[in-house]
């Protein structure tokens, strides 16, 4: 599904990612684990086209992403949930969820919105509320719903559980766990795997821009 090979990314002449290679298969989940500043967000932004790699390859579902314009990547079925949620405060929950569908002129937006509401019923309950009226945890749910509007094949989740109360973090994990049964691939970018360790099939550690795969802990 997603294959990254020997990726190098620099920001203002500073090397951030160094020869990064990872692979995430269809219907599988991978954790990208590292401290703040290790390069996790840079890697995700490179996949989304927000940052341009210096060298290396990013292939998604047989498509060369580096050669694919940024505005076309979402149409490939890639959804992105940023760490800071980035909701538009004055829009309602439903409007925030629909933003990527509007941007991509998604013809099945209403059907997909129904799918998101069925997956996360809480969103339907506070759909009329404005983004600024939500708690941090509720905003995370909305950001996940927004990513799912176009993320039908791959989800990139940047710190999805950070700053969320334990009960709501467990709820987020429940929702995400259902996606694997639908054939979706997911990458978690996290400082630890407290809530997602039981979900992932691969774990990659990132430190100072270098990535290594590490073995999973035995599951009881």
From TrEMBL:
Residues 2-220 form the ABC transporter domain. The keyword GTP-binding does not apply. It comes from Zwartia hollandica. This is ATP-binding cassette domain-containing protein. Pfam families: ABC_tran. The keyword ATP-binding applies. Keywords: Amino-acid transport, ATP-binding, Cell membrane, Membrane, Nucleotide-binding, Transport. Belongs to the ABC transporter superfamily. GO terms for biological process: L-amino acid transport. GO terms for molecular function: ATP binding; ATP hydrolysis activity; branched-chain amino acid transmembrane transporter activity. InterPro entries: AAA+_ATPase, ABC_transporter-like_ATP-bd, ABC_transporter-like_CS, BCAA_Transport_ATP-bd_LivF, P-loop_NTPase.
């Amino acid at each position: 599904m997603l294959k990254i090979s020997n990726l190098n990314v620099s920001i203002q002449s500073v090397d951030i990612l160094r020869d990064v290679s990872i692979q995430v298969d269809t219907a599988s989940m991978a954790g990208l684990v590292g401290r703040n500043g290790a390069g996790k967000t840079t890697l995700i932004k490179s996949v989304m086209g927000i940052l341009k790699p210096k060298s290396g390859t990013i292939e998604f579902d047989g498509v060369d992403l580096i050669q694919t314009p940024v505005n076309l990547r979402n149409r490939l079925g890639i959804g992105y949930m940023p760490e800071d949620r980035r909701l538009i405060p004055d829009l309602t929950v439903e409007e925030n969820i629909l933003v990527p569908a509007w941007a991509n002129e998604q013809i099945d937006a209403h059907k997909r919105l129904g799918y998101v509401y069925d997956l996360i019923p809480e969103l339907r309950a506070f759909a009329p509320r404005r983004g600024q009226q939500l708690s941090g945890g509720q905003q995370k749910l909305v950001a996940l719903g927004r990513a799912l509007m176009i993320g039908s094949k791959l989800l990139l989740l940047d710190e999805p559980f950070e700053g969320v109360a334990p009960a709501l973090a467990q709820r987020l994990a429940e929702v995400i766990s259902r996606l694997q049964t639908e054939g979706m691939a997911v990458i978690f970018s996290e400082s630890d795997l407290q809530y997602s360790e039981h979900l992932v099939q691969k774990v990659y550690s990132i430190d100072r821009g270098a990535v290594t795969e590490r073995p999973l802990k035995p599951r009881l």
